[in-house]
From TrEMBL, chain A:
It comes from Azospirillum lipoferum. It is a multi-pass membrane protein. The chain crosses the membrane at residues 131-150, 156-179, 188-206, 243-265. Residues 34-264 form the ABC transmembrane type-2 domain. It is found in: Cell inner membrane; Membrane. This is Transport permease protein. Keywords: Cell membrane, Membrane, Transmembrane, Transmembrane helix, Transport.
From TrEMBL, chain B:
It comes from Azospirillum lipoferum. This is ABC transporter ATP-binding protein. SUPFAM superfamilies: P-loop containing nucleoside triphosphate hydrolases. GO terms for molecular function: ATP binding; ATP hydrolysis activity. Residues 12-246 form the ABC transporter domain. Keywords: ATP-binding, Nodulation, Nucleotide-binding, Transport. It comes from the Bacteria. The lineage of its organism: Bacteria, Pseudomonadati, Pseudomonadota, Alphaproteobacteria, Rhodospirillales. Belongs to the ABC transporter superfamily.
Length: 279, 267
Protein backbone atom coordinates (compact mmCIF):
# COMPACT_ATOMS: atom_id res chain seq x y z
CA UNK A 1 0.00 0.00 0.00
CA UNK A 2 1.51 3.34 -0.99
CA UNK A 3 2.21 5.73 1.89
CA UNK A 4 -0.53 8.17 0.97
CA UNK A 5 -3.13 5.41 1.28
CA UNK A 6 -2.40 5.29 4.97
CA UNK A 7 -3.31 8.82 5.81
CA UNK A 8 -4.58 11.95 4.20
CA UNK A 9 -2.35 14.83 5.21
CA UNK A 10 -3.72 18.09 6.54
CA UNK A 11 -3.72 20.81 3.96
CA UNK A 12 -3.91 24.04 5.84
CA UNK A 13 -2.77 27.43 4.59
CA UNK A 14 0.49 26.85 2.73
CA UNK A 15 3.10 29.53 2.17
CA UNK A 16 4.62 27.29 -0.46
CA UNK A 17 1.48 27.44 -2.58
CA UNK A 18 1.40 31.22 -2.08
CA UNK A 19 5.02 31.24 -3.29
CA UNK A 20 4.08 29.10 -6.29
CA UNK A 21 1.45 31.62 -7.35
CA UNK A 22 3.81 34.56 -6.81
CA UNK A 23 6.33 32.68 -8.95
CA UNK A 24 3.67 32.24 -11.64
CA UNK A 25 3.01 36.01 -11.79
CA UNK A 26 6.71 36.82 -11.51
CA UNK A 27 7.50 34.58 -14.50
CA UNK A 28 4.89 36.52 -16.45
CA UNK A 29 6.27 39.88 -15.41
CA UNK A 30 9.94 39.12 -15.95
CA UNK A 31 9.20 37.62 -19.35
CA UNK A 32 8.06 40.98 -20.72
CA UNK A 33 10.20 44.12 -20.34
CA UNK A 34 7.38 46.34 -21.67
CA UNK A 35 5.27 45.22 -18.71
CA UNK A 36 7.98 46.19 -16.25
CA UNK A 37 8.55 49.49 -18.04
CA UNK A 38 4.81 50.19 -18.03
CA UNK A 39 4.72 49.72 -14.25
CA UNK A 40 7.24 52.51 -13.69
CA UNK A 41 6.29 54.72 -16.63
CA UNK A 42 3.01 56.19 -15.44
CA UNK A 43 4.02 56.98 -11.83
CA UNK A 44 7.18 58.65 -13.14
CA UNK A 45 5.32 60.78 -15.67
CA UNK A 46 2.74 61.73 -13.05
CA UNK A 47 5.47 62.66 -10.59
CA UNK A 48 7.25 64.87 -13.14
CA UNK A 49 4.01 66.60 -14.16
CA UNK A 50 2.88 67.28 -10.60
CA UNK A 51 6.42 68.18 -9.58
CA UNK A 52 6.44 71.05 -12.07
CA UNK A 53 2.92 72.10 -11.05
CA UNK A 54 4.15 72.06 -7.44
CA UNK A 55 7.17 74.20 -8.37
CA UNK A 56 5.05 76.66 -10.35
CA UNK A 57 2.44 77.06 -7.59
CA UNK A 58 5.15 77.53 -4.98
CA UNK A 59 6.95 80.19 -7.03
CA UNK A 60 6.10 83.90 -7.01
CA UNK A 61 4.79 83.73 -10.58
CA UNK A 62 2.42 80.96 -9.59
CA UNK A 63 0.91 82.75 -6.62
CA UNK A 64 3.92 82.53 -4.36
CA UNK A 65 2.67 82.72 -0.82
CA UNK A 66 -0.15 80.28 -1.52
CA UNK A 67 -0.98 77.09 0.28
CA UNK A 68 1.33 74.89 -1.75
CA UNK A 69 4.30 77.18 -1.11
CA UNK A 70 4.07 76.39 2.61
CA UNK A 71 4.71 72.69 2.16
CA UNK A 72 7.62 71.62 0.02
CA UNK A 73 6.74 68.79 -2.32
CA UNK A 74 3.19 68.34 -0.97
CA UNK A 75 1.81 67.62 -4.43
CA UNK A 76 4.65 65.25 -5.29
CA UNK A 77 3.99 63.32 -2.07
CA UNK A 78 0.29 63.29 -2.88
CA UNK A 79 0.73 61.94 -6.40
CA UNK A 80 3.17 59.25 -5.27
CA UNK A 81 0.86 58.12 -2.46
CA UNK A 82 -2.15 58.18 -4.77
CA UNK A 83 -0.25 55.86 -7.07
CA UNK A 84 0.27 53.45 -4.16
CA UNK A 85 -3.51 53.17 -3.86
CA UNK A 86 -4.02 52.89 -7.61
CA UNK A 87 -1.19 50.38 -8.15
CA UNK A 88 -2.24 48.40 -5.09
CA UNK A 89 -5.72 47.90 -6.50
CA UNK A 90 -4.50 47.34 -10.04
CA UNK A 91 -1.92 44.79 -8.85
CA UNK A 92 -4.64 42.55 -7.41
CA UNK A 93 -7.03 43.02 -10.33
CA UNK A 94 -4.47 42.53 -13.11
CA UNK A 95 -2.98 39.36 -11.63
CA UNK A 96 -6.51 38.01 -11.34
CA UNK A 97 -7.30 39.03 -14.92
CA UNK A 98 -4.19 37.16 -16.10
CA UNK A 99 -5.91 33.96 -14.93
CA UNK A 100 -9.11 34.92 -16.70
CA UNK A 101 -7.33 35.81 -19.94
CA UNK A 102 -5.43 32.52 -19.90
CA UNK A 103 -8.48 30.46 -18.81
CA UNK A 104 -6.37 28.97 -16.06
CA UNK A 105 -8.80 29.07 -13.12
CA UNK A 106 -9.98 25.52 -13.80
CA UNK A 107 -6.47 24.13 -13.40
CA UNK A 108 -5.69 26.27 -10.38
CA UNK A 109 -8.71 25.24 -8.38
CA UNK A 110 -8.42 21.53 -8.99
CA UNK A 111 -4.95 21.83 -7.50
CA UNK A 112 -4.62 22.06 -3.70
CA UNK A 113 -4.55 25.87 -3.95
CA UNK A 114 -7.01 27.52 -1.57
CA UNK A 115 -8.76 30.83 -2.25
CA UNK A 116 -7.04 32.43 0.75
CA UNK A 117 -3.62 31.41 -0.59
CA UNK A 118 -4.46 32.79 -3.99
CA UNK A 119 -5.62 36.09 -2.50
CA UNK A 120 -2.40 36.30 -0.47
CA UNK A 121 -0.41 35.77 -3.67
CA UNK A 122 -2.44 38.46 -5.46
CA UNK A 123 -1.66 40.87 -2.62
CA UNK A 124 2.03 39.96 -2.61
CA UNK A 125 2.23 40.59 -6.34
CA UNK A 126 0.38 43.85 -5.88
CA UNK A 127 3.01 44.93 -3.34
CA UNK A 128 5.84 43.99 -5.72
CA UNK A 129 4.22 45.73 -8.69
CA UNK A 130 3.57 48.85 -6.60
CA UNK A 131 7.16 49.00 -5.38
CA UNK A 132 8.48 48.50 -8.92
CA UNK A 133 6.20 51.31 -10.09
CA UNK A 134 6.53 53.87 -7.33
CA UNK A 135 10.11 53.53 -6.05
CA UNK A 136 11.81 54.74 -9.26
CA UNK A 137 9.44 57.74 -9.41
CA UNK A 138 10.12 58.58 -5.76
CA UNK A 139 13.88 58.29 -6.35
CA UNK A 140 13.72 60.48 -9.46
CA UNK A 141 11.92 63.23 -7.54
CA UNK A 142 15.13 63.84 -5.58
CA UNK A 143 17.33 64.98 -8.53
CA UNK A 144 14.39 66.52 -10.42
CA UNK A 145 12.85 68.64 -7.68
CA UNK A 146 15.22 68.32 -4.73
CA UNK A 147 12.40 66.67 -2.79
CA UNK A 148 12.49 63.27 -1.13
CA UNK A 149 9.24 61.67 -0.09
CA UNK A 150 11.37 59.47 2.17
CA UNK A 151 11.92 62.56 4.30
CA UNK A 152 8.43 61.90 5.69
CA UNK A 153 10.15 59.21 7.74
CA UNK A 154 8.38 56.32 9.45
CA UNK A 155 4.89 57.78 8.97
CA UNK A 156 5.44 57.24 5.24
CA UNK A 157 5.40 53.49 5.91
CA UNK A 158 2.07 53.86 7.73
CA UNK A 159 0.62 55.94 4.87
CA UNK A 160 1.91 53.42 2.33
CA UNK A 161 0.51 50.45 4.26
CA UNK A 162 -2.93 52.01 4.67
CA UNK A 163 -3.22 52.97 1.02
CA UNK A 164 -2.08 49.63 -0.35
CA UNK A 165 -4.44 47.76 1.98
CA UNK A 166 -7.32 49.93 0.72
CA UNK A 167 -6.13 49.12 -2.82
CA UNK A 168 -6.29 45.40 -2.00
CA UNK A 169 -9.84 45.74 -0.63
CA UNK A 170 -10.93 47.51 -3.81
CA UNK A 171 -9.07 44.92 -5.89
CA UNK A 172 -10.97 42.09 -4.18
CA UNK A 173 -14.25 43.88 -4.81
CA UNK A 174 -13.40 44.18 -8.51
CA UNK A 175 -12.35 40.51 -8.65
CA UNK A 176 -15.72 39.63 -7.12
CA UNK A 177 -17.56 41.73 -9.72
CA UNK A 178 -15.64 40.08 -12.58
CA UNK A 179 -16.35 36.63 -11.14
CA UNK A 180 -20.02 37.57 -11.00
CA UNK A 181 -20.43 39.44 -14.30
CA UNK A 182 -17.62 37.92 -16.37
CA UNK A 183 -15.17 39.70 -18.61
CA UNK A 184 -17.76 42.37 -19.39
CA UNK A 185 -16.76 43.89 -16.05
CA UNK A 186 -13.05 43.84 -16.90
CA UNK A 187 -12.90 47.60 -17.47
CA UNK A 188 -13.76 48.21 -13.81
CA UNK A 189 -10.17 47.28 -12.94
CA UNK A 190 -8.98 50.55 -14.49
CA UNK A 191 -11.74 52.96 -13.48
CA UNK A 192 -13.20 52.12 -10.07
CA UNK A 193 -10.39 53.68 -8.06
CA UNK A 194 -10.86 57.02 -9.82
CA UNK A 195 -14.39 57.24 -8.39
CA UNK A 196 -12.67 57.62 -5.03
CA UNK A 197 -10.18 60.26 -6.15
CA UNK A 198 -12.33 63.38 -5.56
CA UNK A 199 -13.37 62.26 -2.07
CA UNK A 200 -9.95 60.89 -1.17
CA UNK A 201 -8.83 64.55 -0.99
CA UNK A 202 -5.52 63.73 -2.64
CA UNK A 203 -4.50 67.29 -3.59
CA UNK A 204 -6.71 69.48 -1.37
CA UNK A 205 -7.99 69.42 2.21
CA UNK A 206 -11.32 67.85 3.12
CA UNK A 207 -12.64 71.31 4.08
CA UNK A 208 -12.75 72.17 0.34
CA UNK A 209 -15.56 69.68 -0.17
CA UNK A 210 -19.19 70.66 0.35
CA UNK A 211 -20.40 69.95 3.87
CA UNK A 212 -22.65 67.08 2.79
CA UNK A 213 -19.74 65.34 1.04
CA UNK A 214 -17.25 65.61 3.89
CA UNK A 215 -18.64 62.63 5.88
CA UNK A 216 -18.39 60.52 2.71
CA UNK A 217 -14.78 61.56 2.36
CA UNK A 218 -13.98 60.86 6.01
CA UNK A 219 -15.46 57.38 5.65
CA UNK A 220 -12.51 56.54 3.40
CA UNK A 221 -9.13 55.50 4.85
CA UNK A 222 -7.46 57.31 1.94
CA UNK A 223 -8.89 60.71 3.01
CA UNK A 224 -7.38 60.25 6.47
CA UNK A 225 -4.03 59.28 4.96
CA UNK A 226 -3.88 62.38 2.75
CA UNK A 227 -5.05 64.66 5.56
CA UNK A 228 -2.39 63.08 7.77
CA UNK A 229 0.26 63.49 5.07
CA UNK A 230 -0.52 67.20 4.71
CA UNK A 231 -0.44 67.72 8.48
CA UNK A 232 3.02 66.17 8.49
CA UNK A 233 4.28 68.21 5.53
CA UNK A 234 2.80 71.56 6.64
CA UNK A 235 3.01 71.36 10.43
CA UNK A 236 5.52 68.59 11.01
CA UNK A 237 3.02 66.79 13.25
CA UNK A 238 1.85 63.22 13.01
CA UNK A 239 -1.94 63.15 13.37
CA UNK A 240 -2.54 59.91 15.25
CA UNK A 241 -6.29 60.45 15.05
CA UNK A 242 -6.20 60.29 11.25
CA UNK A 243 -3.92 57.27 11.35
CA UNK A 244 -6.23 55.48 13.79
CA UNK A 245 -9.24 56.22 11.61
CA UNK A 246 -7.41 54.97 8.52
CA UNK A 247 -6.42 51.71 10.22
CA UNK A 248 -9.89 51.14 11.68
CA UNK A 249 -11.68 51.85 8.42
CA UNK A 250 -9.23 49.67 6.52
CA UNK A 251 -10.03 46.76 8.80
CA UNK A 252 -13.71 47.20 7.99
CA UNK A 253 -13.09 47.58 4.25
CA UNK A 254 -10.74 44.58 4.13
CA UNK A 255 -13.24 42.40 6.02
CA UNK A 256 -15.90 43.53 3.54
CA UNK A 257 -13.62 42.91 0.54
CA UNK A 258 -12.74 39.40 1.71
CA UNK A 259 -16.37 38.56 2.47
CA UNK A 260 -17.58 39.78 -0.93
CA UNK A 261 -14.76 37.91 -2.69
CA UNK A 262 -15.49 34.65 -0.86
CA UNK A 263 -19.19 34.97 -1.61
CA UNK A 264 -18.48 35.64 -5.31
CA UNK A 265 -16.05 32.71 -5.40
CA UNK A 266 -18.67 30.41 -3.87
CA UNK A 267 -21.26 31.64 -6.35
CA UNK A 268 -18.79 31.07 -9.21
CA UNK A 269 -18.59 27.43 -8.08
CA UNK A 270 -22.39 27.26 -8.01
CA UNK A 271 -22.64 28.66 -11.56
CA UNK A 272 -19.64 26.81 -12.99
CA UNK A 273 -17.86 30.06 -13.80
CA UNK A 274 -14.42 28.80 -12.72
CA UNK A 275 -14.33 26.42 -15.66
CA UNK A 276 -16.02 28.55 -18.27
CA UNK A 277 -14.92 32.10 -17.73
CA UNK A 278 -12.35 33.50 -20.10
CA UNK A 279 -11.79 35.77 -23.04
CA UNK B 1 -5.50 14.20 11.02
CA UNK B 2 -5.82 10.75 9.50
CA UNK B 3 -8.61 9.03 7.67
CA UNK B 4 -9.02 5.29 7.51
CA UNK B 5 -9.19 4.02 3.95
CA UNK B 6 -11.34 0.98 3.34
CA UNK B 7 -9.61 -1.10 0.66
CA UNK B 8 -12.73 -1.94 -1.35
CA UNK B 9 -13.92 1.66 -1.33
CA UNK B 10 -14.46 2.88 -4.89
CA UNK B 11 -12.27 5.71 -6.18
CA UNK B 12 -15.39 7.75 -6.94
CA UNK B 13 -18.86 7.37 -5.50
CA UNK B 14 -21.58 9.72 -6.72
CA UNK B 15 -25.01 9.46 -5.18
CA UNK B 16 -28.04 11.30 -6.56
CA UNK B 17 -25.73 13.86 -8.15
CA UNK B 18 -27.80 16.67 -9.64
CA UNK B 19 -27.03 20.01 -11.22
CA UNK B 20 -29.65 22.52 -12.23
CA UNK B 21 -28.77 25.88 -13.73
CA UNK B 22 -31.21 28.76 -13.43
CA UNK B 23 -32.21 30.52 -16.64
CA UNK B 24 -33.21 34.20 -16.79
CA UNK B 25 -36.67 33.69 -18.23
CA UNK B 26 -37.72 30.12 -17.77
CA UNK B 27 -37.48 27.07 -15.57
CA UNK B 28 -34.12 25.74 -14.41
CA UNK B 29 -32.15 23.64 -16.89
CA UNK B 30 -31.23 20.25 -15.46
CA UNK B 31 -27.74 19.46 -16.73
CA UNK B 32 -27.23 16.39 -14.55
CA UNK B 33 -30.23 14.55 -13.19
CA UNK B 34 -29.77 12.53 -10.01
CA UNK B 35 -27.05 10.20 -11.26
CA UNK B 36 -25.62 7.49 -9.06
CA UNK B 37 -22.49 5.57 -9.90
CA UNK B 38 -19.25 4.21 -8.52
CA UNK B 39 -15.87 3.99 -10.22
CA UNK B 40 -13.81 1.06 -8.90
CA UNK B 41 -10.24 1.69 -7.84
CA UNK B 42 -7.67 0.93 -10.50
CA UNK B 43 -10.22 0.92 -13.31
CA UNK B 44 -10.45 3.01 -16.44
CA UNK B 45 -14.02 4.20 -16.86
CA UNK B 46 -15.39 6.02 -19.86
CA UNK B 47 -18.03 8.70 -19.48
CA UNK B 48 -19.82 8.81 -22.80
CA UNK B 49 -22.60 10.86 -24.25
CA UNK B 50 -23.41 13.35 -26.95
CA UNK B 51 -22.78 17.07 -26.71
CA UNK B 52 -24.74 18.48 -23.79
CA UNK B 53 -25.27 15.08 -22.20
CA UNK B 54 -23.77 16.31 -18.92
CA UNK B 55 -20.27 14.77 -19.04
CA UNK B 56 -18.27 17.94 -18.42
CA UNK B 57 -20.74 19.08 -15.76
CA UNK B 58 -20.36 15.72 -14.03
CA UNK B 59 -16.55 15.90 -14.15
CA UNK B 60 -16.64 19.47 -12.85
CA UNK B 61 -18.71 18.34 -9.87
CA UNK B 62 -16.36 15.42 -9.22
CA UNK B 63 -13.48 17.89 -9.14
CA UNK B 64 -15.33 20.30 -6.87
CA UNK B 65 -15.13 23.12 -9.43
CA UNK B 66 -18.90 23.09 -9.63
CA UNK B 67 -21.17 22.67 -6.62
CA UNK B 68 -24.00 20.15 -7.06
CA UNK B 69 -27.59 21.24 -6.57
CA UNK B 70 -28.21 17.93 -4.82
CA UNK B 71 -26.45 14.67 -4.13
CA UNK B 72 -23.04 13.75 -2.81
CA UNK B 73 -19.61 12.96 -4.22
CA UNK B 74 -16.93 10.96 -2.45
CA UNK B 75 -13.49 10.83 -4.03
CA UNK B 76 -10.92 8.39 -2.63
CA UNK B 77 -13.13 8.12 0.44
CA UNK B 78 -13.35 11.86 1.03
CA UNK B 79 -16.57 13.87 0.94
CA UNK B 80 -15.91 16.56 -1.70
CA UNK B 81 -18.47 18.94 -0.24
CA UNK B 82 -16.73 19.11 3.13
CA UNK B 83 -13.08 18.16 2.66
CA UNK B 84 -12.09 18.45 -0.98
CA UNK B 85 -8.74 20.01 -0.11
CA UNK B 86 -7.76 16.82 1.68
CA UNK B 87 -7.97 14.82 -1.52
CA UNK B 88 -6.98 17.31 -4.23
CA UNK B 89 -3.24 16.55 -3.85
CA UNK B 90 -4.02 12.93 -4.79
CA UNK B 91 -5.94 13.61 -7.97
CA UNK B 92 -5.47 15.62 -11.14
CA UNK B 93 -7.26 16.72 -14.25
CA UNK B 94 -6.63 17.52 -17.88
CA UNK B 95 -8.85 19.03 -20.54
CA UNK B 96 -8.12 20.63 -23.90
CA UNK B 97 -10.68 23.28 -22.96
CA UNK B 98 -8.86 24.46 -19.84
CA UNK B 99 -5.52 25.84 -20.89
CA UNK B 100 -2.26 26.54 -19.18
CA UNK B 101 -1.01 30.14 -19.27
CA UNK B 102 0.17 30.84 -22.82
CA UNK B 103 2.95 33.27 -22.04
CA UNK B 104 4.71 31.03 -19.55
CA UNK B 105 7.14 28.49 -20.92
CA UNK B 106 6.38 24.81 -20.51
CA UNK B 107 9.06 24.56 -17.82
CA UNK B 108 7.64 27.55 -15.93
CA UNK B 109 4.09 26.17 -16.06
CA UNK B 110 5.16 22.75 -14.84
CA UNK B 111 7.34 24.30 -12.12
CA UNK B 112 4.46 26.40 -10.79
CA UNK B 113 2.11 23.42 -10.67
CA UNK B 114 4.77 21.19 -9.13
CA UNK B 115 5.04 23.68 -6.27
CA UNK B 116 1.24 23.91 -5.99
CA UNK B 117 1.12 20.14 -5.57
CA UNK B 118 3.85 20.34 -2.94
CA UNK B 119 6.38 18.21 -4.81
CA UNK B 120 9.93 17.92 -3.64
CA UNK B 121 12.75 17.83 -6.24
CA UNK B 122 10.73 19.96 -8.63
CA UNK B 123 13.45 20.33 -11.28
CA UNK B 124 14.04 16.59 -11.39
CA UNK B 125 10.33 15.82 -11.67
CA UNK B 126 9.81 18.33 -14.48
CA UNK B 127 12.82 16.92 -16.35
CA UNK B 128 11.61 13.36 -15.80
CA UNK B 129 8.13 14.09 -17.16
CA UNK B 130 9.57 16.04 -20.07
CA UNK B 131 11.58 12.97 -21.03
CA UNK B 132 8.65 10.58 -20.57
CA UNK B 133 6.31 12.73 -22.63
CA UNK B 134 8.89 13.78 -25.21
CA UNK B 135 8.73 17.43 -24.21
CA UNK B 136 12.40 18.16 -23.64
CA UNK B 137 12.73 20.15 -26.88
CA UNK B 138 9.82 22.43 -25.93
CA UNK B 139 10.56 23.02 -22.26
CA UNK B 140 11.72 26.57 -22.75
CA UNK B 141 9.15 27.56 -25.35
CA UNK B 142 6.00 29.52 -24.45
CA UNK B 143 3.08 27.12 -23.98
CA UNK B 144 0.89 29.21 -26.27
CA UNK B 145 3.17 28.64 -29.25
CA UNK B 146 2.89 24.85 -29.25
CA UNK B 147 0.88 22.68 -31.62
CA UNK B 148 -2.33 20.99 -30.42
CA UNK B 149 -0.51 17.70 -29.91
CA UNK B 150 2.30 19.33 -27.98
CA UNK B 151 -0.19 21.24 -25.82
CA UNK B 152 -2.01 18.01 -25.03
CA UNK B 153 1.25 16.39 -23.94
CA UNK B 154 2.05 19.41 -21.75
CA UNK B 155 -1.43 19.26 -20.21
CA UNK B 156 -0.89 15.56 -19.54
CA UNK B 157 2.49 16.30 -17.97
CA UNK B 158 0.79 18.81 -15.67
CA UNK B 159 -1.90 16.21 -14.84
CA UNK B 160 0.74 13.58 -13.98
CA UNK B 161 3.05 15.84 -11.92
CA UNK B 162 1.76 14.51 -8.62
CA UNK B 163 1.48 10.87 -9.75
CA UNK B 164 -2.26 11.06 -9.13
CA UNK B 165 -4.21 8.12 -7.79
CA UNK B 166 -7.21 9.45 -9.67
CA UNK B 167 -6.95 11.09 -13.08
CA UNK B 168 -9.94 12.81 -14.67
CA UNK B 169 -9.54 13.45 -18.37
CA UNK B 170 -11.96 15.42 -20.49
CA UNK B 171 -11.52 14.35 -24.13
CA UNK B 172 -7.80 13.65 -23.79
CA UNK B 173 -7.26 13.13 -27.52
CA UNK B 174 -9.68 15.69 -28.96
CA UNK B 175 -8.38 17.31 -32.17
CA UNK B 176 -5.20 15.22 -32.25
CA UNK B 177 -3.89 13.39 -35.30
CA UNK B 178 -4.16 9.56 -35.11
CA UNK B 179 -0.45 9.11 -34.39
CA UNK B 180 -0.39 11.56 -31.47
CA UNK B 181 -3.71 10.25 -30.15
CA UNK B 182 -2.36 6.69 -30.20
CA UNK B 183 0.77 7.83 -28.42
CA UNK B 184 -1.33 9.44 -25.64
CA UNK B 185 -3.48 6.32 -25.25
CA UNK B 186 -0.43 4.11 -25.01
CA UNK B 187 1.05 6.41 -22.40
CA UNK B 188 -2.16 6.31 -20.34
CA UNK B 189 -2.28 2.49 -20.54
CA UNK B 190 1.30 2.28 -19.28
CA UNK B 191 0.69 4.83 -16.55
CA UNK B 192 -2.26 2.87 -15.28
CA UNK B 193 -0.34 -0.41 -15.34
CA UNK B 194 2.62 1.16 -13.57
CA UNK B 195 0.73 3.00 -10.84
CA UNK B 196 -2.63 1.25 -10.51
CA UNK B 197 -4.27 4.65 -10.83
CA UNK B 198 -7.96 5.10 -11.49
CA UNK B 199 -8.86 6.97 -14.66
CA UNK B 200 -12.20 8.51 -15.56
CA UNK B 201 -12.28 9.86 -19.08
CA UNK B 202 -14.94 11.64 -21.05
CA UNK B 203 -14.56 10.95 -24.73
CA UNK B 204 -16.34 11.03 -28.06
CA UNK B 205 -13.89 8.58 -29.54
CA UNK B 206 -15.43 5.12 -29.27
CA UNK B 207 -12.32 3.30 -30.44
CA UNK B 208 -10.43 4.98 -27.64
CA UNK B 209 -13.04 3.90 -25.13
CA UNK B 210 -13.05 0.31 -26.37
CA UNK B 211 -9.28 0.20 -26.12
CA UNK B 212 -8.81 1.86 -22.74
CA UNK B 213 -11.92 1.37 -20.66
CA UNK B 214 -12.98 -1.47 -18.34
CA UNK B 215 -16.35 0.13 -17.83
CA UNK B 216 -18.56 2.69 -19.48
CA UNK B 217 -21.19 5.11 -18.22
CA UNK B 218 -23.53 6.20 -21.01
CA UNK B 219 -25.11 9.62 -20.44
CA UNK B 220 -27.99 11.27 -22.21
CA UNK B 221 -29.85 14.40 -21.20
CA UNK B 222 -28.15 14.49 -17.84
CA UNK B 223 -28.92 10.90 -16.92
CA UNK B 224 -26.95 7.69 -16.96
CA UNK B 225 -28.95 5.62 -19.39
CA UNK B 226 -26.73 2.57 -19.49
CA UNK B 227 -23.54 1.24 -18.02
CA UNK B 228 -21.28 -1.77 -18.08
CA UNK B 229 -18.16 -3.23 -19.64
CA UNK B 230 -17.77 -2.41 -23.36
CA UNK B 231 -18.19 -6.10 -24.23
CA UNK B 232 -21.38 -6.32 -22.15
CA UNK B 233 -22.82 -3.27 -23.88
CA UNK B 234 -22.00 -4.73 -27.31
CA UNK B 235 -23.76 -7.94 -26.36
CA UNK B 236 -26.75 -6.14 -24.87
CA UNK B 237 -27.35 -4.02 -27.95
CA UNK B 238 -26.35 -6.75 -30.41
CA UNK B 239 -23.77 -4.51 -32.04
CA UNK B 240 -20.23 -4.90 -33.34
CA UNK B 241 -18.81 -1.60 -32.17
CA UNK B 242 -19.30 0.79 -29.32
CA UNK B 243 -19.97 3.53 -31.84
CA UNK B 244 -23.10 1.67 -32.97
CA UNK B 245 -24.20 1.32 -29.35
CA UNK B 246 -23.58 5.02 -28.85
CA UNK B 247 -25.72 5.85 -31.89
CA UNK B 248 -28.51 3.53 -30.73
CA UNK B 249 -28.65 5.38 -27.42
CA UNK B 250 -28.20 8.85 -28.88
CA UNK B 251 -30.96 8.34 -31.46
CA UNK B 252 -33.42 6.48 -29.28
CA UNK B 253 -36.68 8.33 -28.68
CA UNK B 254 -37.04 9.84 -25.22
CA UNK B 255 -39.54 7.23 -24.02
CA UNK B 256 -37.00 4.53 -24.76
CA UNK B 257 -34.38 6.05 -22.51
CA UNK B 258 -34.12 3.81 -19.48
CA UNK B 259 -34.44 5.36 -16.07
CA UNK B 260 -31.52 5.32 -13.66
CA UNK B 261 -33.03 2.29 -11.93
CA UNK B 262 -33.27 0.41 -15.22
CA UNK B 263 -29.65 1.15 -15.96
CA UNK B 264 -28.72 -0.05 -12.49
CA UNK B 265 -30.71 -3.21 -13.09
CA UNK B 266 -29.00 -3.72 -16.43
CA UNK B 267 -25.69 -3.61 -14.67
Amino acid sequence: MPPNEMAIPRNDFSLRRVGAMVLRYWYLLRGSWPRILELAYWPTMQMILWGYINQFMASSSGGGSGWVAQGAGVLVSAVLLWDVLFRGQLGVSISFLEEMWSRNLGHLFVSPLRPGEWVTALMTMSLLRTLIGVLPAAALAIPFFGYSVFALGLPLAAFFANLIVLGWSLGLLIVALILRYGMGAEGLAWIVVFMLAPVSVVYYPVSVLPTWLQPVSLALPSAHVFEGMRALVFDGTLRWDHLAWAVGLNMVYMAGGVAVFLYAFHQARVRGALLQTGE
Amino acid sequence: MTERIIPQQPAIRADGLTKRFPTPDGPDVTAVDAITFAVPRGSVTGLLGGNGAGKTTTISMLLGLLLPTAGTVEVLGVDMARRRHAVLPRMNFSSPYVELPHRLTVRENLTVYAHLYGLTCVKKRVQELAEHLDLSRFLDRPSGGLSAGQKTRVALAKALLNDPELLLLDEPTASLDPDTADWIRTYLERYRLRTGATILLASHNMLEVERLCDGVLMMRQGRIVDRGAPSALLARYGRQTLEEVFLDIARASDDRIPTGEAADAAE
